[in-house]
Amino acid sequence: MPLLTQSLVAAESFTHATQPVIATGDGLILRSWTADDAQDVLEAFADPLIRRWHVRSADSLAEVRAWIDTWVRAWSAGVAAHWAVAEIGTGRLVGRASLKNLELEGGQAEVAYWTVPAARGRAVTPRAISALTAWAFETGFHRLELTHSVANQRSCRVAAKLGYALEGTKRSAGLHVDGWHDMHLHARINGGYSAGMSGAEKDRTTAEVQEGEADFAGEHSKPTHAEEHPKGAELETDESTPDGHAGMDG
User: Fold this and answer.
1) Is there a contact between 171 and 40 (Cβ–Cβ < 8 Å)?
2) pLDDT digits 0-9 by tens, 184-194
3) Residue 91 and residue 40 in contact, taking contact as beta carbons nearer than 8 Å
4) Over pLDDT 70: what percentage of the chain?
5) Three-state DSSP state, 19
6) What does each C-alpha distance from 51 to 15, 98, 129, 192, 246 come to in angstroms?
């Protein structure tokens, strides 16, 4: 059955093209993963905060090398795009930036990321995801989504900083080690959101939602799973979305 709309992102942009290197313009690059990154990834997943939000652990270098192989092959298959975030000067791995669940015909994808513990507090994620977002929109993507547990309030602030407007809460949508979490859904639209398409609620950032709704903080501070969220579990302001429950890299 032929589509009546044109595909927004050409499959050949992935299947017949080399994965590009994306520069943030301020000292970081997004590059393809290599087997040499395995040790750094193994160490990153020893961090309890990355394990908490990504719901995944790594037991060996062989396991991580298999992950990396999957990440690399996902590009040419046109199903996902995974980048290693590294310092230009040292080449040191500082994080990950990805587009998951690519829907090329409709130009949609989901953003995912993490930052290694030693690089936190340097706005690695906002810098990397800002550059990745710009690349995605230039490539033809129309809508990028970002989800996180409502318990990860700092990741919520990252989304707002990046211009990903809060659209709502997906109830009991993320299975974590301590049970089901409600998930915030944020999104950015290429070129903004045309007038008349979203009414008075269009383009509200997370901060504006919080400011405008007096009961926001109280409502979203309630436990949403079997056990209360442990104190100190929230990540730094350049940290990761908890996407492991949905199959982080599968």
Assistant:
1) no
2) 999 999 998 76
3) no
4) 76
5) coil
6) 31, 17, 20, 34, 14
